[in-house]
Design a protein that fits this description.
Elements: H1 3-37, E1 47-48, E2 64-65, E3 76-78, E4 83-86, H2 92-96, H3 120-134, E5 139-140, E6 147-149, E7 152-159, E8 167-168
Parallel strand pairs: 1-5
Antiparallel strand pairs: 2-8, 3-4, 4-7, 6-7
């Protein structure tokens, strides 16, 4: 290639990079300006829901659950939480409400008590624990992960152990 062609190519790349940086900077400044104008401190915005490596269990040593056909799945049972977890997120209320034998009241915070259930306090405790673990409160997302295996995040999948009657080494 001719030296002038190389110089022209380098100049074109430099101009393109300069324009990209300029537009990126202006975008950040514009977002910051709009946020500040509306009384929003962008440093206070919550982050994506992610795992807390200091408090969430490392489940890499747990066995995987087998399905009804005997196939090994990605599901794992965490006895501490009395729940089956998966690396695929599910809506937290759909999972947590499974701890309530008679369903959840319209307030979405209490198990339905039909008046004759001696186990209602235990159900309510497990429901509350599940909500506390999975409901996004200080982060952005549909559900919070509850455990991890290496870089994989695991989410509440099912209440109790019914989906994990037999286990095997994960493949």
């Amino acid at each position: 290639m001719h030296p002038l062609g190389i110089l022209a190519l380098v100049s074109l790349i430099a101009i393109t990079l300069t324009m990209v940086i300029y537009f990126m900077t202006n975008s950040v400044v514009t977002v910051s300006h709009i946020a500040g104008k509306n009384g929003i401190n962008i440093q206070d915005l919550p982050e994506q829901c992610d795992i807390n490596y200091n408090t969430s269990p490392d489940i890499s040593e747990l066995l995987c659950c087998k399905d009804s056909n005997g196939n090994t799945t990605d599901l794992k049972y965490i006895e501490l939480y009395d729940m089956v977890v998966s690396n695929v997120p599910r809506p937290y209320l759909a999972v947590c409400s499974q701890f309530c034998r008679n369903g959840v009241n319209n307030d979405h915070i209490t198990c339905t008590d039909l008046g004759n259930d001696p186990d209602i306090d235990s159900q309510q405790h497990k429901f509350n624990q599940c909500i506390g673990l999975t409901k996004p409160s200080d982060c952005i997302g549909d559900v919070k992960p509850v455990a991890y295996d290496g870089i994989a995040r695991y989410y509440a999948y099912s209440a109790g152990k019914s989906l994990c009657q037999t286990t095997a080494i994960c493949t």
